[in-house]
Specification:
2 domains; alpha+beta; four-stranded mixed beta sheet; two-stranded antiparallel ribbon; about 40% helix
């Protein structure tokens, strides 16, 4: 008998541990790795940091000089993004509304790397490989987040072409996009679902071994991958 309570269909159940494998360790996620030669530091020997973006690391000044032609455009993007965050924080202080979106997104990104990479593999069709056949070089992945609480909830995942994303932006960004893709890195844009102009850009280094599992048939593309992703990240 219907007592007037709205009907809520049961949510599908997924074996998340089986569907979303753990990422293998990629050094750049947890410790410094030279952005040019990919060498990792010896214990007790910290790497140099780019003085502008403070993110890219180098084992020597020579590697930093050699990487500059490729790093320059990406560094400009990061520097501009950092300035935009600071401007938004200052605006938030003036109106009495703390701007914490970047910090929340960074924390959410680190906590959900496995699921985020799973979504990226499907959204960019990386299960076809990292070469021309996938969308790694031509598109970025956009994650729309519901920020009504201090625990972000994923509300949608979609893709933008380079042309859509870069419209009206510095042309050198396209070069940075291409170079990142050639290194097996995807660009991810996280946006506030209620305020789309509030954005944070992340770069994800794709686990090539995981992509190879799809190509070999060990793993199969899931037709409901978006629901799997949302079930994994929206646990609270």
């Amino acid at each position: 008998m219907n007592d007037g309570t709205p009907y809520t269909p049961p949510q599908p159940r997924f074996d998340l541990d089986a569907e979303i494998p753990k990422r293998r360790h990629i050094a750049s996620e947890t410790v410094d790795v030279c952005s040019y030669c990919r060498r990792t530091p010896e214990e007790g020997t910290p790497f140099l940091k780019c003085a502008r973006c403070l993110l890219s690391s180098y084992c020597s000044k020579q590697c930093q000089r050699d990487d500059w032609p490729e790093h320059k455009s990406l560094c400009t993007v990061r520097e501009a993004g950092a300035k935009a965050k600071e401007d938004q924080k200052l605006t938030g202080k003036k109106i009495g509304k703390p701007f914490i979106f970047p910090e929340l997104v960074d924390r959410w990104f680190r906590s959900n790397l496995d699921a985020i990479e799973y979504a990226v593999i499907h959204a960019l069709r990386l299960f076809l490989g990292l070469e021309e056949v996938s969308d790694l070089k031509t598109h970025i992945v956009v994650f729309s987040l519901d920020m009504k609480s201090n625990s972000p909830q994923a509300s949608d995942v979609y893709v933008f072409s380079n042309d859509e994303f870069l419209q009206g932006k510095d042309p050198s960004l396209l070069q940075a996009r291409t170079q990142a893709a050639e290194r097996g890195q995807a660009w991810l844009l996280f946006v506030d679902a209620d305020e789309p102009m509030t954005q944070v850009l992340h770069i994800l280094e794709i686990d090539e071994e995981k992509v190879a599992q799809y190509q070999s048939g060990k793993r199969v593309r899931h037709p409901r991958w978006l629901q799997v992703f949302e079930a994994a990240v929206n646990k609270n």
